[in-house]
Protein 1
Amino acid sequence: MGRGHSEKFQKEQKVPKIGSSEVFVSKDHSRNGAKSEDLPRYDTKSKYDELIIDIETELSGINPIQLSKRCIYRVPTELRKLNEEAYTPRIVSIDPFHHGAKARLRSMEDLKRRYFKKFVQRSFVSLRKCIEFLMDNEGSAHEFYDEVIDMDSNTFVHMLLVDACFILELLLKSHCPHFRDNEDTYVMSTPWLRSDLKLDLILLENQIPLFVLEGLYNLAIATSSMQLESLQNLTLGFFKKHNQLDKRPNFESVKHFTNLILILHRPMSQRPVRRLDKFKHVYSVTELDEAGVKFQVSEKKCLLDVDFNKHVLEIPCFKLNDHTETLIRNLMALELCHYPSDSYIIDYITFMDYLINTPKDVDLLVQNGILENWLGDSKAAARLVNKLCVNITVDDNNFYFFDICDALNKYYEAPMHKRKAILRRDYFNTPWKTASTIAAFVLLVLTFIQTVCSIISINGNQTPT
């Protein structure tokens, strides 16, 4: 086939583009005198083209997620269904996840707007500068959330502005009593309201990025005639009960309030080296007690500073009250979503879950000052600790308490200690068994003495005179 014929063939076989309605007809047909209306028509627009165009349009609108910034999460469904109230704001919503969701939350919107107005008036910061800052950083704020926020730009920025200024005014009023008025006295002096408000501000689903608070507060400081505390001091003062170690973390690395509380609860020491073997279990408090382990409350403030030395297990005091479950669940949810291989609270609760199986385990820890049970019932305390670990995944190779659990297991499984445990479990685990065992032992001793005396008496009678 010659070159000229090849080029002619390629022109005749030109393939139409997807979505095009062009029809290409060979020039030979025209030479043969055929009319165009007599020629067969080929509909080159496939029935699939419309769907292809829709999918391509959809894909073009999907942007890559900035995983490095994402840190505000929806709590996984498997956790939320265990206790939905633990992850849901009680009185105030500070985020797009629960924005205007319930009537009980909307009742606080008036207070938020009044605090917003007072903050702007007090600092003399212009609304234009606040809005310019938020508009310029709106994209960065969106990247902090793990899902697309279904709000238009103005609504989202308005929400951030009101919520952030409300928090800043709340922090100022909490730190500076002379900023308060009659309305604030009610908020600050009502224990349940103040407590619930603080608890709402550390819920994982109720967060705004800390850089938003910092940016607006810096604008306020720049225009205020008063000498104001740093945002770090205000925040740490507000959450001081969570800062038992008196930490001063670098706020540039803090993402939001839940992240801050998690950092404050982490130990000062370095995490142990990752293990090749996996963590399996540890014996319960009752079992360890039967083997001779002594339980003692530690004077250390960090919950994770647990130590086992010379058969004494030292554990810092852990308080169980009505807010414990909410606090722990939200910290665990953040670790599960953001720090799956570097969890501390998850490891601590897992450790306590193994130690506590029954109300008797709770009673032993309460007697030794390790647990403060404000729930009023040992069964309720045991049930609370046990259900916290449901649907929680633990990194077995990076378990924080691996060495301590290994040492406790070895102590329990030592032959002498194990026999002691069996003896105490089978013969001394209740007052009745203890009394029966002692009575049987005394009876055995008396029987033995009687037998010896009888033998001596018989031998004495048989002695020749």
Protein 2
Amino acid sequence: MAPATLLSRVRDKVSVDVDSMDPDVAARHTTDAHKFRDMTSNQAIVYSEAVRPERAHVFNAAVAQIRSAEAQLDIDSQVSNALDLLTVLLAKEVFPHLTGRVHAQASPTAAYDTEATIQHAKKLVALFEANGIPKSRVCIKIPATPESIVACNYLERLGIRTLATCLFSVPQAMAAHQAGCLYVAPYFNELRVHFEPGVWKEYTDTAREHPMGPVIGAIVELFKDVGSRTLVMPASIVTAKEVLALVSLSPDHLTLSGAVLDQLAAAEGPAELDTAPQPHHPDVSLGTAPVSGKEPAGKSKGGCTVLYEFCGPPRAGTERIPAVSFSCLYIYIYIYSFCGWSGVWRLLDVWAVAEPDARSVNYLENGAAALRDAFTADAESSRKMADALKIFGEMETKTKELLRAALQAY
């Protein structure tokens, strides 16, 4: 019997999803013992598949179907419909390798428009059903803005399952739980690391020192506290070392790119890991400049520095009342191990002032006003969200340009 790989060991701990629309990736890492649960995608993944010669048959099929059936429509409508059809057809090729759902992401241009998000989600589900994939096997990824969280709540009541993506904070996660989302996908790394390798930062103890480690850990524990049925699926993972760190936080799922899956499959133990980052799209040019704002924390300088950079200094005059639930205690323990009591008090300052007890806040009422306030108070999450939407918008535009040229030449 072949020795167990790190990938098989990870699969024994969490459900592993494939963050790729390449059926060869799914097939390569499917065995009798281990199959992928879901397939996740986004506008960048669709574009990266659209430009591959090996996927030309899918691209051409989408163009041909739209040109033959919708020639009477204006070219902008044809392009928009061709993009949605291309997304569905790419997912359909991976679908045989899944035991769960295909995920397609709503347009980033609709992220701050509740009705437009709802209509796009319904359109995608209808297209999947028309192409042989039932609604029960579909999940729509929706950026977790206040407007789109309201859309998630409406779609869930229609029986359309949703995943709250572009998620960087506990308030976003709690809003998604309250909306009834099937999944939340907290980004471990901001989106730009997949296009600009220099943005990625390495940490000695990834689970403890990475700025998103405590956030994801807090989301997992909070969901346990409230009995949430929403599943935690960390995303935007670029190394196998990060996978192992995330497994230690006990999420429900991990969605992994082909390159990271290959890293895990090639190693039998942590000592054999290739630790080089594996961004999704290092070969795709990105014209969008980063959104201005607080820069992400640099390479680890020790726990206190990371905590200070992530949380900021304690607020003057804050009443420090350690209202700590038992399930959150582990976060305080490892902050104490790095920073002592000063670090614990600083964390309490942030949670007590910047993010009140999330369990007591209704993030959906008044058009998700509390979530909007949370974004206003959290410059880093706001920056990451704006940056992700700009990048996804740019990738969507690139794919539309390819489709427009093909439709006009047909």
